[in-house]
Design brief:
- The protein has helices spanning 7-28, 31-42, 48-72, 80-84, 89-101, 103-112, 117-126, 131-164, 170-200.
- It is mainly alpha-helical.
- The protein is elongated, with a radius of gyration of 19 Å.
- Residues 163-173 have low confidence and may be disordered.
Length: 201
């Protein structure tokens, strides 16, 4: 299954394939897929509350998979897989200390930092963070992301429909909305990177 990596490609792909493949894409891709599904909901193809719920479910499935991989074997913390992500033994030890001392902050850091996402979640499982605590914190972070990006796509599509009734230049309107969505995603990444850096200090 090939998932498009641009919003312009994702929206028709999600509309054509329906909720089931959107769920699979949400496990893999994250916020951009949720935004695209929100656009589809705004255009009348999907149901927005269902989009948000599926996005949350998909994200949680991915997070729990990594958590249980770590829970099943602590040896993976010293494997080639971790070194591939730049997770040296020293960095793994630092992350372990952070997780034990500040579980909530460490999970926010891991969820907001794409590069350490998978190894970070595996480390959380390997150091035996209680499942209930992990699930509760991860659910809260995931729910906020799903609502924000689902609404972003939905409102953008509704805005396009409203504006296009008064203007004939549809291609310019679409281009403007794509720019707005792209800008929000860039600002979100910069904000979360700064927040993650602060939490890591």
């Amino acid at each position: 299954m090939t998932i498009p990596h641009t919003l312009a490609g994702l929206v028709p792909w999600i509309i054509a394939n329906g909720y089931w493949l959107f769920f699979i894409a949400a496990v893999i891709e994250g916020s951009l897929v949720t935004t695209a599904a929100g656009v589809a909901a705004g255009l009348g193809y999907f149901n927005l509350p269902l989009v948000i719920l599926i996005s949350i479910a998909g994200d949680l499935v991915g997070d729990l998979t990594y958590y249980f991989i770590g829970r099943s074997s602590q040896k993976i913390l010293h494997s080639k897989f971790f070194r591939f992500f730049g997770m040296t033994p020293e960095r793994v030890e630092d992350l372990e200390r952070l997780i034990h001392a500040h579980t909530g902050k460490s999970l926010i850091l891991i969820k907001l930092s794409p590069l350490i996402g998978p190894p970070g979640l595996i480390t959380v499982g390997a150091v035996r963070v209680p499942l209930r605590k992990f699930f509760k914190i991860t659910l809260a972070i995931t729910a906020v992301k799903a609502v924000v990006f689902g609404l972003l796509g939905f409102v953008s599509a509704k805005s396009y429909i409203g504006i296009s009734k008064f203007f004939n230049h549809g291609s310019y309107i679409i281009a403007g909305i794509v720019v707005v969505i792209a800008t929000v995603h860039i600002l979100y990444r910069r904000f979360t990177k700064r927040l993650a850096d602060k939490l890591e200090q």
